[in-house]
Design brief:
The chain contains 11 helices and 6 strands. It is mainly alpha-helical. The longest helix is centred in the middle third of the chain and has 30 residues.
């Protein structure tokens, strides 16, 4: 992933959790104006294939189910907080990959569900109607949304910081890893309880966490300082063992450390001394005596 990060890391969206909360705010506003407006924004692969391509993006605005406005704000603040913590720990690029990967899996899951309906139910109105309206799960109207993606954010936080304590119901201190286990059991129970549509929605959204768990098990029990030291160590190893074309004689940085950094040889130094753009005009010239 490091090669992709060097190439595409500059395009990573900073504060992505806050951006997602802003999308939710728009969704809640539309819900208050006219709840049926969300039907035209939800992830509906049948309508997407018939020209409504905006649904590939607008489904992100469908907010999580809301009840009490106070607890809704607390929930959004909590997810924004843990998302920001993960972004600072993993880095903006890796956190972007995690969230966008979850969204991509959700989109693919919706199209697979459409294929399932075609395969087993044909293209009847009853079969395709599963996408045209919210389906009811456990008394709550839901659709393919970021609800379970948010759950995957919490599970990733619990796996990365298992010993962090939070206040359950604002009173009871409990380690995040136990909450993660409880949520995992609840999700497994929901998966068994829900119909095929619900199973596709849960599996597609949480596949993101499964991929993260299998590829990042060696990172889970490290605190942010240890992760930073590991990253610094890897950069030092690449710097000391890798073959590089440029190296600053002052700070020792190479093109591996910063691909956009410019290097120049100094014509006033005796010998082949190369400097980065920050030290080219500030270094002391080397003179042979």
């Amino acid at each position: 992933m490091s090669s992709f990060e060097r190439k595409f890391g500059k395009y990573a969206v900073k504060n992505l959790s806050f951006v997602l909360i802003l999308f939710y705010a728009v969704g809640y506003l539309l819900q208050m104006i006219n709840p049926m407006m969300l039907v035209y924004l939800m992830l509906d692969p049948y309508e997407i294939l018939h020209g409504q391509v905006w649904r590939l993006v607008t489904w992100i605005m469908i907010p999580p189910p809301s009840g009490n406005i106070f607890f809704t704000l607390i929930m959004l603040y909590f997810y924004c907080s843990i998302g920001t913590t993960l972004e600072r720990t993993w880095g903006t690029y890796r956190y972007n990959v995690y969230l966008f990967q979850g969204m991509l899996f959700t989109i693919l899951g919706s199209f697979l569900l459409l294929g399932y309906h075609y395969l087993f139910h044909g293209d009847s109105i009853e079969a395709l109607g599963a996408f045209n309206y919210f389906y009811k799960l456990n008394g709550t109207w839901l659709a393919f949304s970021t609800y379970y993606i948010n759950m995957s954010i919490f599970l990733a936080f619990a796996a990365t910081f298992p010993d962090v304590q939070v206040l359950l119901m604002f009173i009871i201190p409990i380690k995040v890893k136990w909450l993660g286990i409880i949520y995992g059991v609840m999700l497994a129970f929901e998966f068994l309880q829900y119909n095929v549509d619900g199973k596709f929605a849960i599996a597609a959204s949480l596949l993101n966490f499964v991929v993260f768990f299998l590829t990042s098990r060696n990172m889970m029990h490290l605190n942010p300082k240890q992760i930073h030291r590991r990253q610094e160590f890897k950069r030092d190893v690449r710097r000391n063992t890798g073959i590089t074309k440029h190296k600053c004689a002052i700070c020792g940085r190479t093109e591996v450390d910063s691909p956009n950094l410019q290097f120049r040889f100094c014509s006033k130094c005796d010998g082949n001394y190369e400097y980065c753009e920050e030290h080219l005009y500030t270094h002391t010239h080397v003179k042979k005596t």
